[in-house]
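pasting for the record
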Amino acid sequence: MEQQGIFDVAEEWEVRGGTTPFQGRVTGVRSEEVLMPDGSWARRDYQTHPGSVSVLALDAERRVLVLRQYRHPVRQRLWELPAGLLDVPGENPWHAAQRELYEEAHCKADTWRVLADYYTSPGGTDEALRMFVATDLSAAEGERYAAEGEEQQIEVAWVPVPELIRLIQAGELHNPTLITGTLAVHAALTSPGGLDALRPADSPWPARPFEG
């Protein structure tokens, strides 16, 4: 059997009877019947989502900016990367990431690259996330952003990449974006070309097309 290229491909199976039994302010629930390869129909329910961005901010000492905040569905305070929603259709994810880094950490970066694009949980939601790595960091100008909700009790820490890897392997950290980002930046830092080999910050993103 001929080996196929290792890359994801776009594909859409036939759907019938689609409904949206719930639509919240940001996300909703979609219920559809999907035609299976054997000719049967199977119901698939999934969360609809506008998309997200996250930022792995890396300082000159190769420490990562992490934030800890309460996440009600899992009843835990999780260490995470700065992240946020793509609230506006067609919003440039790079601009959204810059906003999140300012709002959550009062920080800015002179150099940005795409670290990874992925679907957060493709069996249950259509959420697509673009993760950036931000370097050449400095404090943002002006007043701090007025936090709301869970963000009012955010804790901030700078943790070396090897220590984050140790904590992930020990089962002490559970946020999927932090885990993905830590392993991805370690791979980039230890690969030929380093961070310079990553894609530019304005690279196309087919999962969530955006305006320049």
